[in-house]
């Protein structure tokens, strides 16, 4: 009886020592793999956040496998434990579905690399500078110093424009509600004329005035044009809105006042709107005086400075936006 007790105690000691040895080996292996992964991924140019995530997942996977080996070594059945792990993993995966989607989108975006921190982008109608980029969301700061956090999965599924990387001009886009008129094309031209008088307008980019909604007495328009600097966006928008509201354009047209805009009744600086800013030099005669507009027949976009005032040279041959034919539109009298 004494011999059996001593033998059983020896067996337990051997099992405990074996289990401890496996745990120590597992810990050492986890640390070695973590260091190798961190060093290798860093040398490969992988971002630090990605490196930490990959190394941590590998380390804890090794720890879990080592624990299962220890449980099997001491005689504990691990089948039920494995089933429990699978069930818990499924529950956690379902509960963290959004987080996993954003994490997966983050990896795709890292590979695609459409922007970096500090780039100016437009996504979901929001234009701003990328301030933070983590595995779940991207934070951008607008020109109004407002921060927006956008889930990475939404960025992956949406159209994205990177103005900072490609050096493009910056869009000014807003809606405008005015009284409805019978001649919508003339209403559009009135607004294009005001936009064209903005001195900082990017004149090789289109000016678009589109009807978003119509009611019995109102027209909801979307105005879109471009400026060369991000800091000009709000000022350009305010400029157009103040002149449209100050000149009561929609009301004049609805009342049949289709001749020229009466400057003396406006609430703004008359000289600023009365004198159209100088345009680019004509390639034929070097004049910088232009008349009218050019309208793309396919996309219905407008371009200011249509025809040279001195030699009648058309400024653009084709629409820069889609390559469509351009039609000259005379200035509003």
Supply database-style keywords.
alpha+beta, Helix Hairpins, 10 helices, Alpha-Beta Plaits, elongated, 333 residues, SH3 type barrels
Describe the model:
The chain has 10 helices and 11 strands. The chain is α+β, with helices and mostly antiparallel strands and 333 residues long. It folds into 4 domains: 2-95, Helix Hairpins (Orthogonal Bundle); 115-166, SH3 type barrels, CATH 2.30.30.60; 171-277, Alpha-Beta Plaits (2-Layer Sandwich), CATH 3.30.70.100; 280-333, no CATH class. The strands form 3 sheets. It has a 5-stranded antiparallel β-sheet with strand order 4-3-2-1-5. A hairpin with a 5-residue loop joins strand 3 and strand 4. The longest helix has 42 residues, at 2-43. Mean pLDDT is 75; it is low at 250-276.
E-strand count: 11
> Strand content of the residues, in percent?
15-25%
**Shape from CA axes?**
elongated
What is the CA-based Rg, rounded?
33 Å
Number of separate domains: 4
What's the pLDDT, averaged over the residues?
75
CATH domain class name of the largest domain: Alpha Beta
Low-confidence segments, given as residue ranges, are 250-276
Order of strands in the sheet with the most strands? 4-3-2-1-5
Contiguous helical run count:
10
Alpha-beta content class: alpha+beta
- Describe the main β-sheet briefly: 5 strands, antiparallel
What is the compact description of this entry?
The protein has 10 helices and 11 strands. The protein has helices at 2-43, 48-73, 79-95, 97-112, 152-157, 163-166, 184-196, 233-247, 249-254, 270-274, and strands at residues 120-123, 126-133, 137-141, 147-151, 160-162, 170-179, 208-214, 218-227, 290-296, 302-308, 326-329.
């Amino acid at each position: 009886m004494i011999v059996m007790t001593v033998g059983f105690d020896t067996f337990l000691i051997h099992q405990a020592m074996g289990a401890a040895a496996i745990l120590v080996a597992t810990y050492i292996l986890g640390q070695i793999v973590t260091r190798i992964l961190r060093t290798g991924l860093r040398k490969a140019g992988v971002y630090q956040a990605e490196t930490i995530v990959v190394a941590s997942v590998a380390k804890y996977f090794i720890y879990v496998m080592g624990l299962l080996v220890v449980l099997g070594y001491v005689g504990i059945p691990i089948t039920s434990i494995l089933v429990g792990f699978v069930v818990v993993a499924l529950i956690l995966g379902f509960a963290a579905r959004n987080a996993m989607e954003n994490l997966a989108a983050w990896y795709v975006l890292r590979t695609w690399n459409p922007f970096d921190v500090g780039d100016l982008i437009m996504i979901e109608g929001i234009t701003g500078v990328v301030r933070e980029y983590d595995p779940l969301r991207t934070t951008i700061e607008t020109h109004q110093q407002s921060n927006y956090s956008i889930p990475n999965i939404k960025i992956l599924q949406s159209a994205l424009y990177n103005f900072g990387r490609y050096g493009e001009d910056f869009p000014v886009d807003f809606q405008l509600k005015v009284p409805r008129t019978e001649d919508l094309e003339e209403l559009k031209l009135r607004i294009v004329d005001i936009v064209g008088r903005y001195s900082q307008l990017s004149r090789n980019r289109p000016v678009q005035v589109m009807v978003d909604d119509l009611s019995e007495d109102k027209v909801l328009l979307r105005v879109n044009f471009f400026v060369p600097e991000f800091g000009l966006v709000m000022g350009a928008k305010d400029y157009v809105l103040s002149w449209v509201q100050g000149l009561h354009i929609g009301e004049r047209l609805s009342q049949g006042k289709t001749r020229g805009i009466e400057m003396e009744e406006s609430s703004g600086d008359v000289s600023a709107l009365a004198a159209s800013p100088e345009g680019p030099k004509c390639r034929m005669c070097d004049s910088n005086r232009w008349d009218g507009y050019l309208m793309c027949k396919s996309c219905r976009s407008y371009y200011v400075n249509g025809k040279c005032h001195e030699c009648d040279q058309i400024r653009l041959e084709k629409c820069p936006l889609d390559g469509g034919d351009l039609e000259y539109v005379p200035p509003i009298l």
